[in-house]
Specification:
Strand order of the largest sheet: 4-3-2-5-6-9-7
Number of strands: 9
Helix content: 25-40%
Order of helices and strands: HEHEHEHEHEHEHHEEEH
Radius of gyration: 18 Å
Distance between the termini: 51 Å
Strand content: 15-25%
Largest sheet: 7 strands, mixed
Structural class: alpha/beta
Number of helices: 9
Length: 234
């Protein structure tokens, strides 16, 4: 039904009005209205027809639509039950998308991945994450020990800066250490507030995290290591 990009101001408002959807501030909902940002995200993530994708928080389907066009298969987790029928509408012409009405933090990610994907195929996480829960979601994915190759997400600029910060800089801290233990993070684009409905108070960044197959740092007890890290930065 929606052959053109969902990620435009006109189409986004049209979908929201038809379904009577108002954003929930408690869920950190901001809908992207700039299609060029989506193009950048897919290019950076290197999504193609040999690639499977997990999306977290599809909203009304702007990024999901683009992922479905480019990827082999998309599995999207949406916590807001109001948006499930909206996604059924906006993604009605995409037969390679499965939407799961679940909190990503409460599912057994390894089990779900085995149910939906071939573990021999390339698997990515690509998402526009809510600001308020960015860190728990990313750490949940990194700590899942699944065969996910990389994470490309749009998150609050300040959080992205901390994730890629170098030792000795003002942004370097426990989050930097944790993310860099599991992956190689690098910021690839800045996204201004006017690219969203509603407009957030802060800017966003697109960051890619290439997950290590073999970590450069070896540890016998990861749990103890992170306890020491957190204590060191408190």
């Amino acid at each position: 039904m929606f052959e053109k990009d969902i990620a435009t101001p006109t189409r986004t408002r049209e979908i929201m009005e038809r379904h009577g959807i108002k954003v929930k501030k408690s869920l950190g909902q901001n809908f992207l209205i700039e299609p060029n940002i989506l193009t950048k995200m897919l290019d950076v993530a290197d999504v193609n027809k040999e690639t499977n994708v997990i999306e977290i928080g599809p909203g009304i389907g702007a990024l999901t639509q683009r992922l479905a066009r480019a990827a082999k298969k998309v599995l999207a987790f949406e916590i807001d039950g109001r948006l499930i029928p909206v996604l059924a509408d906006t993604l009605s012409d995409q037969d390679n998308v499965t939407v799961i009405h679940e909190d990503i933090l409460k599912v057994d990610l390894e089990t779900v991945i085995k149910e939906h994907f071939n573990v021999e195929e390339r698997l990515l996480v690509v998402a526009n994450l809510p600001y308020y829960i960015t860190t728990p979601i990313i750490m949940n994915v990194l700590e899942s020990h699944t065969h996910i190759d990389s994470i490309t997400v749009m998150i609050q600029k300040e959080v992205a800066d901390r994730m890629q910060a170098s030792p000795g800089t003002k942004d370097y801290g426990a989050l930097s250490l944790a993310v860099q233990y599991y992956s190689n993070p690098y910021v690839v684009a800045f996204v201004p507030p006017n690219c969203f409905i509603p407009r957030p108070k802060v800017g966003s960044s697109v960051i890619r995290l290439d997950i290590y197959k073999d970590k450069p740092i070896k540890t016998v007890d990861e749990k103890l290591m992170f306890q020491i890290i957190r204590a060191g930065f408190n």
